From TrEMBL:
Top-level taxonomy: Eukaryota, Fungi, Dikarya, Ascomycota, Saccharomycotina
Domain TOG: 1-229, 274-506
Family of the protein in this entry: Belongs to the TOG/XMAP215 family.
Organism of origin: Pichia kudriavzevii (Yeast)
Biological process annotations from GO: attachment of mitotic spindle microtubules to kinetochore; establishment or maintenance of microtubule cytoskeleton polarity; meiotic centromere clustering; microtubule polymerization; mitotic spindle elongation
InterPro entries with a match to the protein in the record: ARM-like (IPR011989), ARM-type_fold (IPR016024), HEAT_type_2 (IPR021133), Stu2_CTS (IPR048492), TOG (IPR034085), XMAP215 (IPR045110), XMAP215_CLASP_TOG (IPR048491)
Name of the molecule in the record: Spindle pole body component alp14
Length: 796
């Protein structure tokens, strides 16, 4: 069939024709039809039969599909909300085939169609229909889907399109193996983060790798502040148009009010908690938790608490009945082991942050044990307890914690009193509303009594409680309580009252600034004529009164009957109504003067606001510098303490070294004295050895002429033993110089077997043995003489 032939076919046949050119022609005619008359029956029939429209969009030919998607875009633009019923049929086809088309026009028109589907109704169904394509195996499909979702968030913003729809899938995108998918995920993260701010980091970063966090941080630094959505939903656009018409019908004040409302809407913050899916923690707790927490061995209790503490490290916890678990935590709060106490506080902090407002019903149960344990002196334990207490106030009600606090203000332990009052001060400063009258009285009664306490920290804490509370209730209501305070403490309490800052101050004390007072003194411009006439009437009345007082003696009656007097002393309503009918020229003059004055006051107000902003910034800088200096002081004090400890340690070490040196000197002197004594003994023994050698030589000469008899031999043996004993004395310690040398030199010769020396047996041949012994003795004496000469030579 030629092109001329199928051009003559009706539209229905063209749309269902086998030839792609015929279908393309039908799509073009359908687009022209929609542009000319959107209410045409053919267009209406397509909207009523979404399946037929789906087949058109899913055309197998790329060229005809491009024309079909462009036609769909025109139909959606002109039909608006009527096309909502086709969303479930068309969006999946656009995601599956349109956004991944090889034709740029088909891609762009597909994304535009998705944006229109978001625009005509709500964005949630469109995102939900697109999410399944994020899990397909084809990386090209996933990349195109992420790009389309990014376009939706970029055009409409996170105020319209909830980020919760896609946040859970972003982490999976970053874990994808294809780098194009990860790149598009980074672009989507930048878009969403530009609207969400730091809340996006809190939600996403814990689930990403460190390198991915660094890359995203670099991209986030390039985001320009003040990003605004480019498109609005149809309903928002209609509401905005109606508001614009309303604003145009009213004055400038209404425009300012509308701008303020818009600004407040733009400052809306996203809570990461609302984006997170709740985790069922209660079902994951061990079944034997109660018995393990009651274990008498403290290490077992610590182990089970460390085990379950990991379960509570989630952002959002599913709301369930934690009453039994809270009872176990109360038991742990009363545990004597500080590690058990610290772990239980950590678990309660995670539980409170996970439940948020649902934690309120457990506050009454845990507040008393927490306040009771504030008597602990360890700073880390107190910080853990205070963290739980602050969350009890944040997620609970002030009425629930007030009574326990007041009870513990009268506790027997001073630390409990002090910490209870510090906790009360923190709560009072964060309150959004001023406490009720009976609550103020409940707090003031024990606080005033504690001003007379013997402990200084207790008195200081009581003064702070009273000062903060007086600031909240205002000076008008403070006089009653100030009269009850001892005069010694009034000055300190008032100074605390003046210096403290509370949130509920503005709600309790309604003071007007000079600028606002002037502004309120100027009437609304829409009542200009009324105000001006009233002023003129008062002037006229005053002039007549002055005239009546200064001129005649009969003005009282005449002025009473004067029509002008009647007009001037009439009722306010009559005066206003009569004056409104008077002149409009004077009214116009008064109105212009008031406008100038109002503009002047507005300029002064802006100047004052700018000055206030600068002073506030300077104050914040000063506070920051003060905090920095305080931290530096604490650091320097710590270093000073370390140096002091090191100096003390070194001093003690030096003293111990001095003692050791003194002892070593004393030992050296003793050794020197002993050495001298040993040397003297050596000399004495050497002399004795010489004498013994002389006597031995004489005995040898005698024995050669006279036979040895048993008695003499016994004497000789005794003498020999005596010599051996004396010589053995010379064997002193090897460390003693000459004595050791003598012992080494003499030991071989003097180690004579005493059992054989002069050991005569009556049965042996006496003469032979005597001769042998005598010869041996002579030889030994000669050797001793030789050694004696050596020693004498050494002494010389």
């Amino acid at each position: 069939m030629s092109e001329e032939e199928f051009e003559k076919l009706p539209l229905d046949q063209l749309l269902a024709h086998k030839l792609w050119k015929a279908r393309q022609l039908g799509y073009s005619k359908l687009r022209i039809l929609a542009e000319n008359n959107v209410n045409d029956p053919e267009i209406h029939d397509l909207l009523e039969n979404p399946e037929r429209l789906r087949k058109i969009v899913a055309d197998p030919n790329v060229l005809s599909q491009e024309t079909a998607i462009h036609t769909l875009c025109e139909i959606l633009k002109r039909t608006g909300k009527q096309a909502v019923k086709t969303r479930e049929f068309i969006v999946p086809v656009l995601v599956e085939k349109g956004i991944i088309s090889s034709k740029i026009g088909a891609k762009n028109d597909s994304i535009e169609c998705l944006l229109i589907y978001v625009e005509i109704d709500t964005p949630d169904p469109v995102i939900e229909l697109m999410v399944p394509s994020l899990g397909v195996k084809n990386p090209k499909q996933v990349t195109a889907t992420i790009k389309a979702i990014n376009a939706i968030y970029a055009e409409f913003g996170c105020d319209v399109v909830s980020p919760k729809l896609i946040m859970e899938h972003i982490t999976k995108m970053f874990a994808h193996s294809d780098r194009n998918v990860r790149a598009e995920a980074s672009s989507l993260s930048v878009t969403i983060r530009s609207y969400m701010g730091d809340s996006f980091d809190v939600f996403i970063f814990p689930k990403l790798k460190s390198i991915q966090q660094k890359d995203l941080t670099k991209l986030f630094d390039k985001i320009e502040p003040g990003v605004k959505p480019k498109r609005l939903l149809f309903r928002d656009r209609e509401r905005l148009e109606s508001n614009v018409n309303l604003v145009q019908s009213k004055g400038d004040d209404d425009i300012v009010m509308q701008d303020a409302i818009t600004a407040n809407q733009e400052e809306e913050k996203f809570d990461p908690y609302e984006l997170e899916e709740p985790v069922d923690v209660l079902s994951k707790l061990p079944t034997d938790l109660s018995s393990r927490i009651s274990d008498p061995i403290w290490k077992e209790r610590v182990a089970v608490l460390e085990e379950i503490s990991k379960l509570f490290k989630v952002m959002k916890i599913k709301n369930d009945d934690f009453s039994d678990f809270i009872g176990l935590m109360v038991k742990c709060l009363k545990d004597v082991n500080l590690q058990v106490l610290s772990l239980s506080c950590s678990i309660l902090v995670d539980l409170a942050n996970g439940l948020k407002r649902n934690f309120e019903r457990y506050v009454r149960t845990i507040i008393n044990p927490l306040l009771e344990r504030t008597k602990e002196k360890k700073r880390t334990i107190l910080d853990s307890l205070n963290n739980v207490l602050d969350l009890c106030f944040k997620y609970g009600r002030f009425e629930d914690i007030l009574e326990p606090i007041v009870e513990h203000m009268s506790h027997i332990a001073p630390p409990v009193k002090v910490e209870s009052m510090h906790y009360l001060v923190r709560c009072l400063k964060e309150l959004e509303e001023v406490p009720k009258k009976h609550e103020v009285e409940i707090i003031m009664e024990p606080a005033i009594k504690l001003l007379q306490d013997s402990q200084l920290p207790v008195r200081n804490a009581a003064s702070e409680v009273i000062g903060v509370l007086l600031k909240m209730i205002g000076p008008d209501n403070s006089r009653y309580f100030i009269d009850k305070i001892d005069k010694r403490h009034v000055k300190k309490v008032l100074s605390i009252c003046d210096s403290t800052t509370v949130k509920a101050l503005r709600k309790s004390i309604h003071r007007k600034s000079p600028i606002s007072a002037k502004t309120e003194a100027i009437p609304d411009l829409r009542n200009k004529s009324t105000v001006s006439v009233n002023d003129e009437s008062r002037k006229v009345q005053q002039q007549h009164n002055d005239t009546s007082m200064n001129t005649s003696s009969i003005p009282s009656k005449r002025m009473a009957t004067s029509p002008l007097k009647k007009d001037s002393i009439g009722s306010k309503s009559n005066l206003t109504s009569r004056s409104l009918k008077a002149s409009n020229i004077s009214n116009f003059g008064m109105a212009s003067q008031q406008v100038k004055e109002l503009e002047t006051l507005r300029a002064e107000k802006l100047e004052w606001m700018s000055l206030k902003k600068n002073l506030t910034a300077e104050l914040e800088d000063a506070k920051h510098n003060n905090e920095t200096l305080l931290k530096d002081i604490v650091t320097l004090n710590g270093k000073l303490d370390d140096y002091h400890n090191k100096f003390t340690t070194m001093s003690m070490t030096l003293k111990s070294k001095d003692t050791q040196i003194f002892r070593l000197k004393s030992d050296l002197e003793n050794f020197q004295t002993k050495n001298i004594q040993y040397q003297q003994k050596i000399k004495m023994l050497e002399n004795q050895l010489k004498n013994a050698s002389t006597s031995s030589s004489s005995a040898t000469s005698f024995s050669s002429t006279k036979p040895v008899d048993p008695v003499n031999s016994t004497d000789l043996a005794t003498e020999s033993n005596d010599i051996n004993r004396r010589i053995s004395i010379l064997s002193i310690d090897s460390n003693n110089g000459d004595g050791s040398f003598l012992a080494r030199e003499e030991s071989p010769s003097l180690q004579l077997n005493q059992s054989t020396l002069y050991n005569f047996d009556d049965n042996d041949d006496g003469w032979k043995r005597a001769t042998a012994v005598t010869n041996d003795l002579k030889a030994k004496i000669q050797m001793m003489k030789a050694r004696t000469r050596v020693l004498d030579h050494a002494d010389d």
